[in-house]
Amino acid sequence: MFYPLARSLLFKLDPERAHHLALSGLDRLHRSGLSRLAGCAVSAPREVMGLRFDNPVGLAAGLDKNGEHIDALAALGFGFIEVGTVTPRPQPGNPKPRMFRLPEHEAIINRLGFNNGGLAAFVANVQRAQFRGVLGLNIGKNADTPIDKAVDDYVTCLTGVYPHASYVTVNVSSPNTQGLRDLQAAKQLDQLLGTLKAEQARLAKKHAKQVPLALKIAPDLDLKSIREIAKLALEHRFDALIATNTTVSRDAVMGHPLAKEAGGLSGRPLFSPSTEVLRELARALKGNLPLIGVGGILSGADAKAKIDAGAALVQLYSGFIYRGPDLIAEAVRAIGSAGATR
Ligand SMILES: Cc1cc2nc3c(=O)[nH]c(=O)nc-3n(C[C@H](O)[C@H](O)[C@H](O)COP(=O)(O)O)c2cc1C
Is the pTM of this model over 0.85? Predict the structure, then answer.
């Protein structure tokens, strides 16, 4: 209701500054008990990965990288919250400016580069949160960890976040960490998934708690790679796939003055390529593994289209920036009971 005004003020500021201002404003609203003015929960429960979700519309990773705003974000009505990506050690990310709005396309380009406060601070923040709904913790590798040691970073992060997560997302698809997306290649992925599943079994015993693992992939994959990823995810009994992260393609924004900025493109131009990857995954998986659809959801109809393409759940990031909290309830209503049995 208030978002159009807030947005017109925030969009006058540098995107990263606006981001931090908006989140601290949201925290203040939440602490004063007024966050219901900004959004409200819509109940449409469903079970996926053995977890009960209040509704199928979640917050995508990257908006709250350090897990500092979980309660305020959850109060807006998301059915689940994913925070991170966290890396073992703190790191500053890429030099600024590194985040750009393309309002004509309802899009964002970012090359933040996993700026975050590191695993210890992340876990402390997550532990402080009161939220008792489904909380996904998204893990990655440090920029200065050699790619052949990447598995060690994922194991460190998985071990640290495991006791505090409803599910853990293994992010191998950010375009802003050199070499990261190469982990999606069959040989590397086979090793990564195998190691993480073995760790999951060890941690499940230790903590007497089974925490599902989801793999988040890029939209810039050919059909052969998509099918290989689906096959490996099934073979290793991963618990879900998240499609997709941001794209390095600029086809849909060609000619825009910011199109040449390096980084990942998200928002409306990502909807079609990302939904195509989702559809191909669904074809390959034949209902044997749940899918979370993310990329370019700007309306209720977009959210429903992700479910129709095979997703059991959806996530929002750029649409939430452009449309505000109203998009959450709109998406929940548009999805209705569709896909509830996936
Ligand atoms: C500024 C920004 C930062 C992001 N950071 C992360 C991140 O740290 N980890 C991650 O898995 N995805 C990250 N993403 C990707 C989103 O989670 C999502 O997959 C992508 O933006 C597509 O959804 P959208 O079109 O709704 O934004 C980021 C996206 C944006 C725009």
Answer: yes
